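Last lecture ended with a question: if I hand you only a sequence, what can you say about the shape of the protein? Today we answer it with a concrete record. The protein is Thiol:disulfide oxidoreductase. Below, first the input exactly as provided, then the predicted structure, then a couple of comments.
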Amino acid sequence: MIDLYYWTTPNGHKITLFLEESGLPYTLHPINIGKGEQFAADFLRIAPNNRIPAIVDNQPLDGQPPLSLFESGAILLYLAEKTGQFIPQDLRGRQQVLQWLFWQMGGLGPMAGQNHHFNRFAPDKIPYAIQRYVDETARLYGVLDKRLADRPFVAGDAYSIADMAIYPWIVPHTWQQQNLDDFPALKGWFERIQARPATQRAYALIEQVNPPPQ
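The predicted structure:
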């Protein structure tokens, strides 16, 4: 059983995508970041960087006591290795997945996150900052579009943790001032993942945990 500490953000959705795809049993523990619950002492013992997501694996493969992890990329890799799913076992296939996982963690996520901040949440609208992050997000979308031009998924023929890491950061593309019609290969990939039953189950948790205001 996995305890998942979660909120309805792109990084949170990465882990529910994996858990719904893999069928691993899990218990959801909402951490309302709008109310500051990420700073609670109990949560900080699991996630010292006061960010979601985090997990506790109550049955790690080494048979030792429960294991806690924070950082979404590390969690995805751990779960893939635990289950043997969504990461190739051969050297070259594994490296394809890992480099695109790290691309999301080091590039798309931070840049799109700053895009969200300056576009939607900053109290002062700073045109230079907005344009900088909109442009960099567009560049990264272009990199991804080129990558997907001749393959169905980011690392090749098989859906992987790299796709799970990237997809939630494309979902809010309108926040980022991006039009998916400008990136046809990316758009096709996005629609394939959006149609997966596990994706729909993962995103249905929003209504349970943090329904949007009416």
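Comments.
1. The chain has a mean pLDDT of 97.
2. The beta strands are 2-6, 26-30, 54-57, 67-70.
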